[in-house]
Known about the structure:
42% of the residues lie in helices and 15% in strands.
Amino acid sequence: MDSVTQAALGAAVAGLIAGKKCSPKVLLAGAALGTLPDLDVLIHYGDPVSDMVKHRGFSHSIFVLLPFSWLLALVWQRFKPTVFSFMHLWFLVAACLITHPLLDSFTSYGTQLLWPLSASIAVSSIFIIDPIYTVPLVVMVLASLLWREKGAKLCGIGLGLSSLYLTWSVVALSMVENRVENQLVGTPLEAQPVFIAPTPLNTVLWRIVVLDGDTYWEGLTSLLDDNPHIDFIAKDRGKWPLQDKPQHLLMLEQFTQDFVKYQHIENRLTATDLRLGVAQYLPFSFQFAQQNTGHEWQFGLPIAIESPNVRIKHVPALWLRLLGNQAIDANLCHEAECPKLERSAQAAIIAG
């Protein structure tokens, strides 16, 4: 999640745990602790793919944060004594640190909560920025600065409201999963890998990606749709044209669970993460090989490719789609890709 959300979450957690000892200093410390795990973005691993894959790694692991919180509380108590007992202080510090990766695990990016184990957890029920989750935390933390005697209670209310919304996001995801499963059953895509994620800033409009060899099918569905039917659009996924794959590409494939789009653009071979983004706005795209003048492919460190800017005309279209206007689905794809909706007989089967 974004830094404002993590700071507000850390402050609210600190205020609630502090109880009657809640103060502006406690809230400020909680906000700082809440953003601390994301300082790993300052670490450069040598290339953009490694930076992407290794973000939310060791700094988001409960196996690291638990002993680190103990050490931090010990140093804090030693050099700046507080009104808290050591165990109370340790609990406060640990809670502020660990709620950060716990919240991150509900996004699509993936969080290595169990690092050094390789498992990455991504519930994918909430977008990385969602004001409906963040606003109650911010409002109640600010209110606790004005009414200090009720600080802990106000922080608790903020956490309760945001947690209810987070719970709703999981329920909404389950509803969309059932909708997708019901539509794909009995079609050629029934057993294919499916990725589902909310579109930016909400948990009402959802994006679905289904892998199908060198094709992927993309659709949008809103919980406000009168008709639960999803209009899937077929898009080229491509395939890696060379016999060997560079190690960084294998890293990206593992990180994305193979939700990758391959492209041969002029003299470059690129791969794009299909999970993060919406429609044709996919921000994580990388160049892995380039052809020299002798038409031989040369591999080097991957290079990040600048993503296209969001077209202003698509913003109101997304809003209308969220409200249940299914007639504009095709307008949200790139003009050159829209005709592929009927690219094969399979399209007719999936479209119903």
